[in-house]
Every structure is written in C-alpha cells, then in structure tokens.
Design goal:
Number of helices of chain A: 8
Shape of chain A: elongated
Strand content of chain A: under 5%
Strand content of chain B: 5-15%
Largest sheet of chain B: 4 strands, mixed
Mean pLDDT of chain B: 83
Oligomer: heterodimer
CATH class of chain B: Alpha Beta
Shape of chain B: globular
Structural class of chain B: alpha+beta
Number of strands of chain B: 10
Largest sheet of chain A: none
Low-confidence stretches of chain B: 1-50
CATH architecture of chain B: 2-Layer Sandwich
Order of helices and strands of chain B: HHHEHHEEHEEHEEHHHEHEE
Helix content of chain A: 25-40%
Distance between the termini of chain A: 74 Å
Radius of gyration of chain B: 18 Å
CATH topology of chain B: Alpha-Beta Plaits
Radius of gyration of chain A: 22 Å
Number of domains of chain B: 1
Number of domains of chain A: 1
Largest interface: A-B, 17 and 22 residues
Low-confidence stretches of chain A: 1-28
Helix content of chain B: 25-40%
Distance between the termini of chain B: 34 Å
C-alpha cells in the first residue's frame, strides 16, 4: 500500500508538530502584536518590582512601558534558556526599538493618575489589574473596562474626589 | 471683619450700568479713580477657611499687547485655528482674546474667562455641564455639554465659544496637548485657567511631599507663563501671602462689569498714565 518513505515523512511531520506544540508551550506567544513575547511571571521577582519596568507608576499619571535600555540592564548577557531570550539582543543588533502595544486606554476626555492611586492611596496593582505575577503570555485584552460609575463608586466609598474636573479634561 | 478681594464691592454695584463690555472696560480702567482710591484702603485678607480661590491679575501697565498669551493659550488648550470660513463668519475661538481699546485706555485689553464668584453661565446650564469647582474655577465638561448655548447668552463677558464645526488642526493630531481633550463640534468651550496644570501641580506636590509654593503657581497657566513682561500673575486669592492677593489689593485694581454682580476672579490693574 503506502510507500515506506511516505511513512517516514509522515512520522517526521507528526514528531515535528508535537515538538512545535511543546515549543509553543515553553515560549508562549501571547499578543503577537508585541515586539517580543515576554513573560511577566518569569520577570516579577523579589528584586524586580513592577516599577522597574513601569517606571511612572508611583510618581506619574502614566505607568509607562520599559525601553530596550531597561531590558539590557540584565540581557547584555544571556538569561535563562528560553528561545525568545536572545531576541532581546537581536533588537539591539538591528538598532531597533521596542514599541509596546498599549491595551488599556480610557476615553480621551478622562484623566487618570497612577501616582494618585498607587502612591497617595497606597493601592495595589491587583485592585484594578489582573494578577500579572501569574501571567505567562503577553495579555491580548485590556483588563480594565471602566465605566464612570466604577470610578465614582470607589471614590464615593473612599471619600476621594467627586469633582468632575478631577477626572475629566 | 477684614475685607477680602472677593467680597462684594458695594461701591462697584453703585456704578452706573454701562452699555457694553468695551464701555465697561473704559469705565473700569479709566473712570473709577475715586472708587479705586477708596478700595486701596481695604486690606487684603483670606476669605474664611483655607479654601483656595484661583485667580489672575493682569497689569495693564506692564502688558505690551503683544498677543503672546493668546497664542500660548491656543497651543496649550488645543484650540483649533479658525479656517478662513469660520473667520469670515466671525466664529474664531479664543479663550484668551483682546477686546478693542477702551476709551481712556491706551489700547486693547487681554480678557480670559473671569471665573466669577457668581457666574451667570452656571445658573442657566440645563444639564450641569458647567459648574463652579470648590476652588472657584468655572468648569465646563465638554462630554456633558449639549450645545444649547444658554451659557453664551448669559455670560456678560462673551467668554464662551461654540464649536460650529469639527475642529481641524494644521499638521498631525499627535502634536496636540494630550492633557486637554479636544472639543467636538456642537459643544461650548471656554478658559479653564489651565486647570490641567493646576491639577498636575497639586498632585506633584502631594506625591513629592513638597509644599505647593506661590512661586511655582505665579506663572502656571499658559498665558501667564508666556507673558514676556510678566503682566499676568496667577495664584490663590484667598492666600494673603500670595502675589495675586497682594496685587489685587493695589489701588489700581479694577474688575470688569462690576455692576453685573458677578465678582470676577480676574482682576485688572488699570494704567497709571
């Protein structure tokens, strides 16, 4: 019936596809619009707090995203064994920048400040965002779907500002 | 009780009603020497409590009428330049504008929203889109505005503008100031005293645990910051130590249309010439 060579080709194909799946499990893609697949879970440690990469989160309105220079603090030399890891240095070699895709974005007429919540109100990221310590893939969807009533409900309960101009611009 | 710069000025209300704003400016700037002399004897004092009263003092002796404040305001607040069409219909938008020279005054007068203590525009808004904040700014929430324009009729200073068309900026929208939302067609807009800068300064001071000093406030709004002759001073009128409060107590201090009973927090220092 079937040619022995054909059987070998099929076998190779099957093995390759399993390897591919295993590879996918080991280095998850997540949001493919991001320049690099980076795992929050692997990066968030005792010495690596959110603010190391989201540098505005304590003092500014915007949490902001890390630059390639921030990554190179560690990735000048190889870190771990993940296949995506050398990509960080490849960006430097190509003279390319990291342009992260931002997911959470309130309406253009709304003012939100991380400093006000994280520093002045001592809130944890997880009170509003998903728990990033458990996130292995770049998230593909925003985790905050804020209606004005959500903001106002908490502000009312915590006696924070209810002035329209506090949140509107 | 001490008299504050925001107290009703009884003398003001006795002044005869003037026909229009230009005429009023003339009166305020030139014709009220006696009243002003009397006012100079009134000491400046904080109003009750520690509530801030944001205000501006504009010194017409210092003002060179260069128009820098008008341009700076427009840039800062994403006010779209009027196309030739809008200009031809007399519909350009200027939160800070120059009114024609008042008789007795040498030339034009820069005039932003007066941020009245008793703003007539607020009373007529049917949807609560305009209101007075706790710190005395006459605010306008563009998202809430339904464009009925009652407030424009109510404002004795004509400091409100309707967006007759969708705003268009030369070049790229990415050059807009992200701190100020552009206003769509069909809503009324106005000066906010650069509230976004005040909000940022207050937040900065709290986050850094530094006191917010009068020095950092004096040139905070774009108009004051851009003024080459330092004719425009911003600050807390309720703080007796502030530069604005000190200037507002000057014998030269006048307010526009005092007879309207609006009690503006924009105070002019009339020319001495």
């Amino acid at each position: 019936m079937s040619h022995p060579r054909g059987r070998i080709v099929l076998l190779v194909a099957v093995v390759a596809s399993f390897a591919g799946m295993a590879g996918a499990r080991r280095s998850p893609a997540g949001d493919t619009r991001q320049p690099l697949p980076m795992s929050h879970k692997r990066h968030i440690t005792k010495d690596m707090k959110c603010r190391a990469c989201h540098q505005g989160v304590e003092g500014e309105a915007m949490a902001s995203f890390p630059t390639l220079a921030d990554c190179m603090d560690c990735h000048k030399t190889p870190q771990g064994k993940e296949p995506a890891e050398p990509e960080v240095r490849a960006f430097v070699a190509r003279g390319q920048d990291l342009t992260w895709v931002r997911l959470n974005r309130l309406a253009g007429h709304v003012y939100f400040s991380h400093a006000a919540h994280v520093t002045l109100a001592s809130m944890k990221c997880e009170e509003c965002h998903r728990d990033m310590k458990a996130v292995d893939q770049a998230p593909t969807e925003p985790d905050i779907h804020a209606q004005m009533s959500d903001c106002v409900a908490c502000h009312r309960s915590k006696h924070a500002s209810l002035d329209c101009l506090a949140c509107h611009k | 009780m001490k008299r504050g710069p925001l107290d009703d000025d009884v003398r003001d209300s006795r002044r005869k009603l003037l026909a229009g704003l230009a005429a009023s400016a003339a009166g305020a700037l030139a014709g009220c020497t006696r009243a002003m002399a009397a006012q100079s004897t009134a000491p400046v004092a904080a109003t009750s409590g520690s509530r801030r009263r944001w205000g501006l003092v504009i010194d017409l002796d210092r003002c060179a009428r260069c128009g820098g404040c008008v341009v700076a305001c427009q840039q800062e607040n994403n006010v779209a330049p009027a196309g030739s069409d809008a200009a031809a219909r007399m519909r350009p938008i200027h939160w800070m504008d120059f009114l024609p020279a008042a008789p007795g005054s040498s030339s034009a007068t820069p005039i932003p929203c007066m941020h009245c203590e008793d703003p007539p525009c607020v009373k007529v808004c049917p949807v609560g889109a305009t209101y007075k904040t706790e710190e005395g700014i006459t605010a306008q929430i563009w998202e809430r505005c339904i464009g009925c324009r009652y407030c424009m009729v109510a404002c004795p200073y004509a400091r409100r503008y309707f967006n007759w068309s969708e705003p268009r900026w030369p070049g790229d929208v990415s050059s807009l100031n992200p701190d100020v939302a552009p206003r769509p067609r069909g809503v009324v807009e106005k000066c906010t005293l650069c509230h976004h800068r005040i909000r940022a300064a207050l937040e900065r001071a709290r986050v850094d645990e530094e006191p917010l000093t009068d020095e950092t406030l004096r040139r905070l709004p774009a108009c004051a910051q851009s003024c080459p002759t330092l004719a425009i001073t911003f600050g807390d009128l309720a703080d007796p130590e502030s530069e604005v409060a000190r200037l507002a107590a000057s014998p030269r201090a006048v307010r526009l249309l005092p007879e309207a009973g609006t009690r503006p927090k924009v105070i002019y220092l009339r020319e001495t010439k």
